[in-house]
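We emphasize that the prediction below concerns an isolated chain of 487 residues; any contacts that depend on oligomerization or on bound cofactors are therefore not represented. The input was used exactly as deposited, without trimming of termini.
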Amino acid sequence: MGNDKMTRDRKRWLALMVLCLGVLMIVLDTTIVNVALPSIRADLGFSESSLVWVVNAYMVTFGGFLLLGGRLGDLYGHRKLFLVGITLFTFASAACGMANTQTLLIAARAIQGLGGAVVSAVSLSLIMNLFTEPGERARAMGVYGFVCAGGGSIGVLLGGLLTNALSWHWIFLVNLPIGVAVYALCVSLLANDRGHAHGESLDVAGAVTITTALMLAVYSIVNGNEAGWISMLTLGQLAAAVALLAVFLGIEARMRDPLMPLSLFKLRNVAISNVVGMLWAAAMFAWFFISALYMQLVLHYSPLQVGLAFLPANLIMAAFSLGLSARIVMRFGIKLPLATGLLFAAAGLTLFALAPVQGNFVMHVLPGMLLLGIGAGMALNPVLLAAMSDVTQGKSGLASGIVNTSFMMGGALGLAVLASVAAARTENLLGAGIASSAALTGGYHLAFLIGAIFAASAALLGAVLLRTQLPAAKQAEQQSPAITEAA
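Result of the prediction step, given as a token string:
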């Protein structure tokens, strides 16, 4: 009997490693692309404003289908959907790696986002099912959170290495052996569970409607500089996005099993944490995207040097995910770590907004990276805990999925806005006769400054409007589902 239990335990922990390996691919593709963006831009002829679609195509479909992925797992079995997601993501990675046109790369990135959404949503459910005892579940989610945060470090470093030594195509092709291995191990280690959400309807209309609305909104913002901000095309696209959003809200209000239950937003902490998450993600995704461009196009760093420059921030975030953030929350509650972390992030973005054309790493890059790493590591867990602090244990997964969706949507829309603002400012400076490097820096400065305002606004909202700290027992109860892909 004892040997059987040891065998089952060993198999469960091996299964956790397989799930984490699958999630690692998703996290890699969130950060690995950033250091290769200038190389992709030069090779495929992207403009600076359209380049954001290499990132946004992934983020919009990921965020739009994250909740639907979880629902599909409930209906048809988590293991089956995990395999479908891994297969979709792996084939899309191959298409990205072989892409020779802008359209093919962006389309493949969108399919990657869809596969990534399914993998991320279902992997959390599988871990919850594998580890039901609170202590074991907390340890398992700690491993999962470390992989998510550590994957960011691996992504920026691996992206620099592959782009520098081979080409940008290999940042996607590296997923192929990982995907094959994860699929094979998953088949042998995970039980073939059946769906258990019998009788529930599938809110495909809600997922398609909100994703289309967000894609239209991002597209109109990205192309606002070229088409004109008050042109009929831009205004028409924005109006269509607003109309689709209204349709989505109508669908959710009438559905028996909605993708996003609107009643959850009557709970103050759920509503405020989602707004905070959107503002913060807008600042953070813009930091990754624009600072990579600043280091390569202004400071003339190689892709490998850019990867190494991001490493301190990602290592700090990984350290927080290993338990430091949880201990801070247990000691100080939710509000103080959240507000303090977001203020650190705002300070880091402000330092980037002051970085000069002739900047150097120690004086003008490293301080901002350190502050942003500390800020992100400190604030992430409180945001997620706040999102679930007003809901019952049975709805904590749903609340976590909703705040993850807000992160991805805020990141996509924020990046589109700030990249467009930077491009417009750069064009104005170039038109005034300013040198290219100085004009680029001026555009990036404005984007960093707006990002800092987003982060500071999120800190203020969290400090003023969130409820007071959670009781220790409640924190312990909800700690395990709090660590998610957003790490």
